[in-house]
Amino acid sequence: MEAMARWQPGARERLQTAALERFAQQGYEGTTVAEIAATAGLTERTFFRHFADKREVLFSGQEEFARVFVAAVDEAEGDDAMSIIATALATATSSLFPGERRSWSRARQAVIDADPSLQERELLKLSALAVAMTSALRRRGISATAATLAAESGVAVFRVAFTGWIAAGEERSFGELLRAVFAELRSLVDTV
Amino acid sequence: MEAMARWQPGARERLQTAALERFAQQGYEGTTVAEIAATAGLTERTFFRHFADKREVLFSGQEEFARVFVAAVDEAEGDDAMSIIATALATATSSLFPGERRSWSRARQAVIDADPSLQERELLKLSALAVAMTSALRRRGISATAATLAAESGVAVFRVAFTGWIAAGEERSFGELLRAVFAELRSLVDTV
Lengths: 192, 192
Hints:
With about 190 residues, the first copy, chain A, is mainly α. Chain A has helices at about 10-25, 35-40, 45-50, 55-60, 60-75, 80-95, 100-115, 115-140, 145-165, 175-190. The first copy, chain A, is built from ten helices and no strands. In chain A, α6 packs parallel to α9 (about 145-165) and α6 (about 80-95) packs antiparallel against α10. The longest helix of chain A has 24 residues, at about 115-140. The termini of chain A are far apart.
């Protein structure tokens, strides 16, 4: 009955944890799917039931990621582009980045920072996020210029807040960091 | 004497013009180096003396591009991150995007907009620009947060201004558009 897939409780999470552990120890390129599966005490077959390839361990859920932000833009109260984006970022990150997610995010980012091809992949993911939020703002009747500027600056704010959030010893919530970074952006822009 | 490269006056520019013409007519993917060379009335050998491959016709000078912006950040007067970036963008774009460059830039962008792999390439180029400007600001003693925010928002402003600059019928200079976009960013950020 080889086609019968036994369900492995928590297999996906075990594979993700095992992968991050291996990537941290021996690098992303130097790690095989077989090693990840073995570390998790699972088979390669089980690995490929959950992930298309090694990279997907780090980037699975990307569509869901963008969808959460876009839904937050759709639902945010307010009329002007940047308030909508600020509200949307706060809503989306409170659901995507709760405190218990911080150590996973930190470990994942360390793996990405060590590999140029993963950095490009992450960059394209964030750029796709900016494009998706721009479209969501346009659907709300915001002009192309304001929508692009707000979404792109919003992603810049998100990135800086994220970097702060995963910094060693940081205990503030993502939302608190977003507010601090938006305040800094405002003071920076006011000097021009 | 096959190793003796005859110098072709204006060959590089002729090849670039021919490439854009072909890309516009039959798509980037659907164009060969042989066709570009033939359109320019030159040989493939001459093409490869000027460009490593077809893509480089669109992306040659990328290091020089970033260098002009970084030099402008190094030399801009002022102490705060965003004023430095605003001054640097004005200086760099006035040298890189004079009025006579507009139709080339417009044609190049149309080719890029039609091809997802070129879009990714362009995105990585602009991201590298943000990283280079962030480092240049850090060397001037600006904090990591302010440097990242200013450089990333600066690139967002650059992109919006560039899109405006190449829009059909637009006659304002790049510098005028940058000022308008910075003003819009200020008003957007002030609402948060």
